[in-house]
Amino acid sequence: MSYIEQTVEFLKDKGFESPEVGIILGTGLGKLLDEVEVLAEVSYNHIPHFPTATVEFHKGKLIYGQLSGKKVVVMQGRFHLYEGYDFLDVTYPVRIMHRLGIKKLLVSNAAGAINLDFKKGEIMLIDDHINLLGGSPLAFKGVSKTGDRFVDMSCPYDPKMSKKVEAIAQENNITLHKGVYASVMGPQLETRAEYRYLKIIGADAVGMSTVPEIIVANHLKLPVIAVSVLTDECDPDHLKPVDVEAIIETAAKAEPHMITLFKQLIGKLEV
């Protein structure tokens, strides 16, 4: 029995039966769980072959329950390359949620605004991305046994779900930008020169996650969208030292808008 099969069997035994939607919650974005009717939960460190979250503000639990009339499986805390994990670790949960049965994946993150027309506390729907992580979650022997090796990325974010999110934002008077997310290794924040470079190559926001999960979702032909909660403004000409606590605080203030978008989207999804 493979690692994936062992993990899936363990979770099914814990009550994770036929989830329809998967959700990955980013830094400072855990309050969505207050809206979930929790039916089962398990800490990452109890799940066979699962990585363990090491970032202090990531809780490290997999939650199964009901939200907006759908069965959901929620990652409360994700994994990052900067924690010392590899691409297979970081994306392992996406493969597990897919094998459990999810038909759609929603991803959130906290990011810095490179586009200075975007302000902290606002939300950006990711329309495209730039992978600056130095690798790929598909670059391993035997990948063709799990899907196509050469995955098309001409439209990595699902247009149907994206349009629904834009309509929901308009209906609820939520400022929602669309833009390009650049994923960098971290954990150090960017220099002034790096922010200028990111702007030149077309990034609207920058963070340290999300892209590996999106690549694997596309590998699995799993429709996916992602939103960034913009927690700081990355102006290289007026750069101040970053306060991580302030970033978490800004994420918390913007979080209700993200919750509205995800809750209403899940209610409208056909799965």
Automatic annotation (TrEMBL):
A Gene Ontology BP annotation from the UniProt entry: nucleoside metabolic process
Nucleoside phosphorylase domain sequence ranges: 21-266
Role of this protein: The purine nucleoside phosphorylases catalyze the phosphorolytic breakdown of the N-glycosidic bond in the beta-(deoxy)ribonucleoside molecules, with the formation of the corresponding free purine bases and pentose-1-phosphate.
SUPFAM superfamilies in the cross-refs: Purine and uridine phosphorylases
Protein name, UniProt field: Purine nucleoside phosphorylase
PANTHER family from the UniProt entry: METHYLTHIOADENOSINE/PURINE NUCLEOSIDE PHOSPHORYLASE (PTHR11904), PURINE NUCLEOSIDE PHOSPHORYLASE-RELATED (PTHR11904:SF9)
Family that this chain belongs to: Belongs to the PNP/MTAP phosphorylase family.
GO molecular function term, any single one: purine-nucleoside phosphorylase activity
Cited InterPro entries: Nucleoside_phosphorylase_d (IPR000845), Nucleoside_phosphorylase_sf (IPR035994), Pur_Nuc_Pase_Ino/Guo-sp (IPR011270), Purine_phosphorylase (IPR011268)
Gene Ontology CC terms, in alphabetical order: cytoplasm
UniProt keywords, alphabetically: Glycosyltransferase, Transferase
Pathway(s): Purine metabolism; purine nucleoside salvage
CDD domains listed in its UniProt record: PNP-EcPNPII_like (cd09009)
